[in-house]
Automatic annotation (TrEMBL):
GO terms for molecular function: transmembrane transporter activity. InterPro entries: MFS, MFS_dom, MFS_Efflux_Transporters, MFS_trans_sf. Keywords: Cell membrane, Membrane, Transmembrane, Transmembrane helix. The lineage of its organism: Bacteria, Pseudomonadati, Pseudomonadota, Alphaproteobacteria, Hyphomicrobiales. It holds the Pfam family MFS_1. It comes from Roseibium aquae. This is MFS transporter.
């Protein structure tokens, strides 16, 4: 029997949770890119309506996130994550049988509930409950695995779509939740941190200041906005800078590897430093990339993608490790639920806002995200280690 804190058990826990989160991300956040158009055509809608339903799902996830975090603080994350798999399967099942647009929206609302209790925030809180302040390494580990969600999810959704159809693809993802992700989450240690959290609160001293919490919430909202805006519009932005369609697509393909490479760096070299250090460096990456793109145009497309991707990779980890390092593990789940709620709402609006800016201003739209990125860097400078 492995000890909860043994390296072997820790590695297996990271692998199980990382894999289950990969399924959750691939079957929610990443399915509209492949399935939205056939969904819309089948129901006689514009694809805009499907993406609107997806945005509604992200708003739902923001509303339930704090509750899920508080639940994980008190009872551990295993049960919450298992329930998320059941909810994801139910929502995907609703999509699969949707005869009308209202049922489609209902399906996405249910999926939004699953996103609120079954994506990174819930995974981070689960690990904090199991490992306390030692959760930084496991948090990085699950982001390394789940960072491949689009790499796995998009092709698999595409294969199911081509072989069976979009409704059957939704059923396929529901089955994967029940047959793969649910058993993996059921295997996790219970990880309730109630007693440990009370002791940690005593050791940590007084609760964090409201200013620090607001600053960090702003940082997360700003970085999620930029990340989602680039995910939706990067090829168009690079073409506005003068890159050809082929170069824009090739550069965009580098973002995933850049994110993973940066997370490996965080797992190795950067783990020697306080997370605030690596987060500040990561926040500066997008503004630096924007300056390079405006200065050199199309030839800087690859550099832009690498810088933005690397920064985004570390910032994803920071959403879990930075609150833990600054404020401790007491009340961690509820805290990151509140810290990330504004980010989820802005994330829902980011494609529309940046798309309008790109249409109106062309390449100059990059100054919008560069300014937001610079503001997040300044906010991080104002934060201090606990």
């Amino acid at each position: 029997m492995f000890s909860r804190l043994s390296p072997a058990r820790r590695g297996l826990t990271v692998a199980a949770l990382g894999t289950s989160l990969t399924v959750s991300w691939a079957s929610s956040y990443y399915i509209p890119a492949v399935l939205a158009v056939p969904m819309a055509e089948d129901l006689g809608l514009s694809p805009v309506w499907v993406f609107g339903a997806f945005s509604m799902a992200m708003v739902v996830s923001a509303m339930v996130g704090p509750w899920a975090g508080a639940r994980i603080d008190g009872a551990g994350g295993r049960g919450v994550l298992m329930v998320s798999n059941l909810i994801f399967a139910a929502g995907l099942g609703l999509l699969a049988v949707a005869p009308t647009p209202p049922v489609l929206f209902a399906g996405w609302a249910v999926i939004g509930l699953g996103m609120g209790i079954g994506l990174y925030e819930a995974g981070f809180a689960t690990l904090a409950g199991i490992y306390g302040k030692d959760a930084r390494g496991p948090i990085t580990g699950i982001t390394l695995i789940a960072g491949f969600a689009s790499t796995v999810g998009w092709p698999l959704s595409g294969v199911m779509l081509a072989t069976w159809g979009w409704r059957e693809a939704c059923i396929g993802w529901a089955v994967i939740h029940l047959a793969v992700a649910l058993p993996l989450n059921a295997w996790l240690p219970k990880g309730t941190s109630t007693a440990a959290a009370q002791q940690t609160q005593i050791e940590d001293g007084p609760p964090p200041s409201r200013l620090a919490l607001w600053l960090l919430a702003f940082v997360f909202a700003a970085t999620w906005f930029n990340s989602t805006a680039m995910a939706a519009h990067l090829p168009g932005l690079l073409q506005a800078a003068g890159a050809s369609t082929a170069v824009a697509i090739a550069a965009g393909a580098l973002i995933g590897p850049a994110q993973v490479a940066a997370r490996v760096l965080e797992f190795g070299l950067l783990r020697r430093f306080h997370p605030l250090v690596s987060t500040r460096v990561a926040a500066a990456a997008h503004p630096a990339a924007a300056v390079a793109l405006v200065s050199f145009g199309g030839p800087a497309a690859y550099a832009f993608a690498l810088l933005h991707g690397a920064g985004n990779g570390i910032l994803t980890i920071a959403k879990g490790t930075l609150p833990l390092a600054l404020f401790g593990s007491a009340g961690y789940g509820r805290r990151i639920g509140w810290l990330n709620a504004p980010a989820r709402i802005l994330q829902a609006a980011a494609p529309l806002i940046f798309g309008a800016a790109l249409t109106a201003w062309g390449l100059s739209a990059i100054w919008l995200t560069a300014g937001i990125g610079a503001a997040s860097f300044i906010a991080l400078l104002a934060l201090r280690r606990s």
